[in-house]
Amino acid sequence: MAPDISAPAETDQPGADREEDRQSPRDAGNDVIIRGESVVKEYQTGAQTVQALKGIDFSIQPSDFVAIVGPSGSGKSTLLNLLGLLDVPTRGTVRLRGTDVSTFSDGDRTTKRKHTIGFVFQSFYLIPTLTALENVEMPRMLDRTPKKTRERAKQLLRRVGLGDRLDHYPDELSGGQKQRVAIARSLINDPAILLADEPTGNLDRETGDDILELFDELRAEENVAVVTVTHDAYVAEEADRVVNLVDGEITDADEAESNGVVEQ
Amino acid sequence: MSWLRRVAAYFPTVVLARRNLSRATARSLLAIAAVVIGVVAIGTIGMGGEAFKQDQMEAFEGFGGTATVYPVYHHDGSGSINGDFSRQNINRMRQVTDGTTVLPIVERWDTLVQTPTGEVIITAQVKGLDNPGSFYDAQSGTIPDNWKRSAIVGSRIAENNDIQPGDRITVSVNGSFTRKFSVAAVLEPQGFADQLRADRTVFVPLDEFDDPEYDSAIVRVDPTTTSVDAATESIESEFNTRERNVYVQKVQEQREGFEKTFETINQFLIGVGSISLLVAAVTIANTMLMSAIEREREIGVMRAVGYPKRAVVSLLVAESSILGIIGSMVGVPLALGIGMVLNQVLLGDPLAFTAAGLRYVAIGAVFGIGTSLLAGVYPAWKAAKKQPVEALD
Ligand SMILES: Nc1ncnc2c1ncn2[C@@H]1O[C@H](COP(=O)(O)OP(=O)(O)OP(=O)(O)O)[C@@H](O)[C@H]1O
Ligand SMILES: [Mg+2]
User: Fold this and answer.
1) Whose CA is nearest to atom 16 of ligand 1?
2) Smallest Cβ distance to A127: which of B298, B306, B309?
3) First vs last C-alpha separation in chain A
C-alpha cells in the first residue's frame, strides 16, 4: 500500500579526512544512521558548568527500537536533542551517516532534520489553528507539492487510525489521537529515525500501548528506527535495547532485556 | 470555494499567517484599527489639504495673464516725492507692450462713500478706472460700454450695505469731487487674488478725476495665447533704465507663492498624521511580539521539523503585512469617503478629487503596509533566532 519509503542513502561529505573519519566506512557498512562517540554535553549556567552527558557512545541502526531511561535530570532529553540534530555536543562527535554534525551549519542541520528525523513530543505540540490533516502536512507545507503532500498525509492519518478525523482541530481530539496525529506528522518526510521524548507520558496505559503497537508496525513497515525517552516500564520492556542513563553516564546499555534497570 | 483552497495551498505561508491572525481576533482587529487610523489620517489630511488649496487657488482663475505695474517713489532732494504715472507714461507702456491692454488706475484713500440713506461705508475704497468691463463681469445690472457718470460697486460692498443697481450713492474724494452716482452694476465676487480688490471697491470713471496721476497700471494679456512676462519685461526695460522706476507684481508669482505656502503647511500636517502610522507600527510590533512569544513552542516545533529561520521570518512578517494590507484596504475607502465630504464642502463636488490628493491616499496605503511589514521584522527575527531546543523545553 505504502510507496517505497526506505530512506535515501546520504552520501558522505568528501574532504573530511580527520582521524575519526576512518570510522565512516564501517558506519556505512553497518548502515548506521547516527553514531555518537565520547559525547559530552555541558551547559554553562552563570559561573557553573553542568555536565549533562559525560562521554557516552551510542549508535542507531534502521528499525532499531531503543528506549532511553533514567532518573530525572540524567540527560535523556539532552541525548535526544543531540540525536535529533537540535544541538551539537560540547566534545566528542555525533555522526549522521558518517558525517560529523559539527561540520553542518545551522541551515544544514535544519535540512538534515527535515529529511532524516521525525519528532514526537510528550505534549504533542500540534498547531491549534490547523486541522489534523494540515498538522500532518505542516513539515512539508513549504515544499510546493501540495497534492503529493496531501495524499501522503491522508495515508499516514489512515495508517494511525484517524482516517475519519482528518478535518478535526487538535482541541477536538483526545490525547491519544493527538499523539497519533503527531506521529503521523513525524513520518510525513519519511524519516530514517523517529525520536520521541516521553510520547506516552501524557497518555493512559491503554492508549500508550496503542502508540507502542503503532511504533512496532511502523518499524516493520517503514523501516524507521524509533528512539524513545520514557519513564514507563512497559515501554522499555518493548524496546530492543534500553539505554540507562544515570547522571550523564550509561550504566547498562546491553542489548539484552535490562528489566532490572527499568524497574527503578 | 475548493478552487480557492487549492490556490491557497500554493501559498502556505499566507494560509498559516492568516490562521494565526484569526487565532487572536481581537488583538488583530486592534492592530488593524491602528493602521486604519494612520492611513485615514494621512489620506484625509493630504486630500483635504489639496481640496482646500484647490478651493483657494480657484480665486486666481482668470487672473493668470495679469500683472500690476507700480511706480517706485524716489526722494528727489527737494522734499517732494515724485512718482505716479502720467498719461504719457501709460502711453509709453502701451507702445512698448505692443497693443497689450494697459489700464491706468487711480486709487485714492482720502475718500468717503455714503449709502443712499447717508450711512458712511468705511470699508469702501474708491478707484478710478476705465473700461472695467474688460476685466469684470456684472453680477447684476450691466457694465456700460461707454462708461460715464455712474458707479460700479464690488460684491462685498454691495452685499454688506444692501446696494442694488439703480441706487444712488455719494462719493467724495478729497480735493477732487463730491458727487452722487447711480449704481450701474454690482460685480461678481473676485476673491483675494484680484489685485484691484474689486470686492471692496467702488469704481468710478477715470474722467471724474481731473488731471489724473495714476497710482498703478494693470497689464493684461490673454493667458491662453501669450505670457504676461513678455509685456512686463518690455515695460521694465523701458522704464528701469538708470534707476528702478517701476515695480511689477505678477498674479502668477503671487499664486506660486501661495501654492508653496499651502504645500508646506500640508506637508507639516501630513507629518503630524504620519505619527499615527508610527503608533500603528508600534502597536503591530507589540502584537507580533506577543504572538511570537505565545507561539514559541509551536515555532520551535516548526524549526525542529525542518523549517529554516527564513521561513519563520517570512511567516511572521506575512502576518504583520496582512494586518497592514487589511488596515489599508479598510482605510483607503474610508479616507476616500471623508475626502468626498471634504470635496463637497470645499469645492461643491464630491468627486472633485485631484491627482495630488489621491496620491496622498496611495502614500497612506503604501506606508500603512510598509510600516506594518517593517514592524514585523524584529519580532520575526527574534522568534526565528530562538533555538528549537530552548523553545521546546
Ligand atoms: N539549557 C540548559 N541549561 C543549563 N542546564 C541544562 C539545560 N538543559 C538541561 N540542563 C541540565 O542538564 C541536565 C540534564 O537535563 P535533561 O533535560 O537532559 O534531563 P532529563 O533526563 O531529560 O530529565 P527529565 O526526565 O526530568 O526530563 C540537568 O541537570 C539539567 O539541569
Ligand atoms: Mg527530559
Assistant:
1) A75
2) B298
3) 42
User: What is the number of structural domains in chain B?
Assistant: 2
Phi, psi of A63 (to 5 degrees): 65, 10
Geometric angle at alpha carbon A235, from A177 and A196, rounded to 5°? 60
Q: What percent of chain B has pLDDT over 90?
A: 38
Instruction: Convert B133-167 to b/e letters by CB count within 10 Å (16 or more is b).
Output: eebbebbebebbeebeebbbbbbbbbeebebebeb
Interchain pair A84, B304: CB under 8 A: yes
Grid cell listed for B222: 490673454
**What pLDDT is attached to residue B249?**
87
d(CA A55, CA A248): 8
Distance, in Å, from the CA atom of B62 to the CA atom of A189, rounded to the nearest integer, reads: 76
- A5 to chain B, any CB pair closer than 8 A? The answer is no
Kindly state the cell numbers that stand for B69: 505695474
Per-residue DSSP letters for A130-184? Answer: S-HHHHHHGGGGGGS-HHHHHHHHHHHHHHTT-TT-TT--GGGS-HHHHHHHHHH
List the single residue in B12, B19, B301 with the smallest CB-CB distance to A142: B12
Distance, in Å, from the CA atom of A197 to the CA atom of A186, rounded to the nearest integer, reads 13
**Nearest CA-CA distance, residue A140 and chain B, Å:** 9
DSSP secondary structure letter of residue A97: T
Instruction: Specify whether B205 is located in the same domain as B127.
Output: yes
Q: Is A78 in the pocket of ligand 1 (CB under 6 A)?
A: yes
| Model pLDDT for residues B271-281, shown as the tens digit of each residue | 998 898 899 99
Cα A53 to middle of ligand 1, angstroms: 10
Sign for the pseudo-dihedral over CA of B24, B28, B31, B37 = negative
Distance A74 CA to ligand 2 centre (A): 8
Ligand 1 probe mutation, A41, A43, A231, most atoms within 8 A of CB: A43
**Are B186 and B164 contacting, i.e. CB atoms less than 8 angstroms apart?**
yes
For residue A189 and ligand 1, the question of a CB distance below 6 A is answered with no
Cβ of B10 within 8 Å of Cβ of A144? The answer is: yes
Asked if residue B168 is part of any domain, the answer here is yes
Q: What is the mean pLDDT of each run of 10 residues along chain B (393 residues)?
A: 72 87 91 94 91 83 82 67 77 84 86 88 88 85 88 92 91 87 91 84 88 84 78 87 84 86 89 90 92 92 93 94 95 95 90 90 94 94 91 78
Summarize the confidence of residues A209-220 as an average pLDDT: 88
Choosing among 3.40.630.30, 1.10.1040.50, 3.40.50.2300, 3.40.50.300, the CATH entry for A61-86+104-263 is: 3.40.50.300
